[in-house]
């Protein structure tokens, strides 16, 4: 992949984005539409933005297939998306042709089930491929810079 | 009584080698405890219904478990929870989305349900359930049709 830095932007989280992969004509459209689908509990819409050969790394855990992510993890991401606000702090996009990447940092705030505040920076790397004119996510990697959160993650201590 | 969560259900299903999915060891977003964003069942297709006169299938049998059952509902449907079944008409008008197989990503409006059978209507224009296979996994979510999304 031709890793060419093409943009560095600060964006508000309320950027209007399409809901479907066929409308995701740019890599950023696809990433933002995916987040919006999670927030809206739009399971089919979120799946339409993910490639069939998706692999997800999330806080030290691997979802090796789209099916694994969809069944075992996506509902929790939807719950989190509904309970928190994700504000884009920084974003870079690079690549070329049909292969692109979007690296974003989000300030994530909200309240957990016990009423405790959620406030951290979540880091996201998304790799996207264009097929039939639409971008879909083939890899996504989430992590956080919150040491307290990382300390809670099973396996983190072994790393 | 402790209501089963989707996570519990997934672990049980993984233990049974459902669908060949690897055993999930959840972390990350899922470890931050937040309320479910809606009522949601996770399920597995156990059998296909009979095709209609055109040869199209719109019914399937399933086993399913709700993600987090509200306490009053749990009291009312304790038997169904124990059997991983629906209460009759419990998910009527909800949306089912398939997560594996040929119909991955396809959504349908639930016309009606019995304890272990779901009948759908193709409001979302994904076609009949003809590609469905025994063992396919799905969510049924409390989302009502508001036009094709």
Task: Outline the secondary-structure elements.
The complex is a heterodimer of chains A (159) and B (149).
Chain A: E1 5-9, H1 27-39, H2 43-48, E2 50-58, E3 61-63, H3 66-72, H4 74-83, E4 84-96, E5 99-111, E6 117-131, E7 134-144, H5 147-152
Parallel strand pairs in A: 2-7
Antiparallel strand pairs in A: 1-4, 2-3, 4-5, 5-6, 6-7
Helix pairs in contact in A: 1-4
Chain B: H1 6-15, E1 40-48, E2 59-66, H2 71-76, H3 78-82, E3 95-98, E4 107-113, E5 117-121, E6 137-141
Antiparallel strand pairs in B: 1-2, 1-6, 2-5, 3-4, 3-6, 4-5
Q: Would you kindly provide a written description of the structure presented here, covering whatever features stand out?
A:
The complex is a heterodimer of chains A (159) and B (149). Chain A has 5 helices and 7 strands, in the order E-H-H-E-E-H-H-E-E-E-E-H. Chain A is α+β, with helices and mostly antiparallel strands. Chain A has a single domain, classed as Nuclear Transport Factor 2, Chain: A (Roll). Chain A has a 7-stranded mixed sheet with strand order 1-4-5-6-7-2-3. In chain A, a hairpin with a 5-residue loop joins strand 5 and strand 6. In chain A, helix 1 crosses helix 4. The N terminus of chain A is likely disordered. Chain B is of the alpha+beta class and 149 residues long. Chain B has one domain. Chain B contains 3 helices and 6 strands. Chain B has a 6-stranded antiparallel β-barrel with strand order 1-2-5-4-3-6. In chain B, strand 3 and strand 4 form a beta hairpin. The longest helix of chain B has 10 residues. Chain B is globular. The termini of chain B are far apart. About 13% of the residues of chain B have low confidence. The chains are: A alpha+beta (159), B alpha+beta (149). The interface between A and B is large, with 44 and 38 residues.
């Amino acid at each position: 992949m031709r890793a060419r830095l093409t943009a560095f932007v600060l964006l508000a989280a309320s950027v209007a984005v399409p809901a479907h992969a066929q409308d995701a004509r740019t890599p950023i459209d696809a990433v933002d539409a995916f987040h919006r689908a999670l927030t809206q509990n739009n399971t089919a819409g979120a799946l339409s933005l993910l490639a069939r050969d998706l692999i997800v790394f999330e806080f030290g855990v691997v979802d090796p297939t789209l099916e694994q992510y969809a069944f075992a993890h996506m509902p929790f991401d939807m719950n989190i998306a509904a309970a928190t606000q994700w504000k884009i702090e920084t974003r870079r996009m690079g690549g070329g042709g049909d292969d692109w990447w979007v690296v974003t940092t989000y300030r994530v705030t909200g309240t957990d089930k016990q009423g405790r505040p959620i406030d951290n920076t979540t880091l996201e790397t998304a790799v996207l491929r264009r097929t039939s004119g639409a971008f879909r996510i083939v890899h996504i990697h989430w992590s956080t810079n919150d040491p307290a959160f990382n300390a809670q993650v099973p396996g983190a201590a072994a790393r | 009584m402790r209501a089963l969560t989707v996570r519990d259900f997934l672990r049980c299903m993984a233990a049974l080698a459902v669908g060949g999915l690897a055993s999930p060891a959840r972390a990350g977003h899922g470890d931050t405890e937040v309320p479910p964003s809606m009522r949601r069942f996770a399920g597995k297709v156990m059998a296909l219904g009979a095709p209609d006169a055109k040869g199209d299938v719109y019914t399937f049998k399933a086993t399913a478990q709700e993600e987090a059952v509200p306490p009053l509902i749990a009291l009312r449907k304790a038997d169904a929870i124990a059997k991983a079944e629906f209460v009759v008409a419990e998910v009527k008008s909800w949306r089912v989305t398939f997560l594996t197989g040929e119909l991955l990503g396809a959504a349908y409006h639930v016309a009606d349900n019995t304890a272990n059978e779901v009948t759908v209507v193709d409001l979302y224009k994904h076609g009949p359930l003809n590609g469905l296979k025994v063992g396919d996994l799905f969510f049924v979510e409390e989302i009502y049709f508001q036009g094709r999304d």
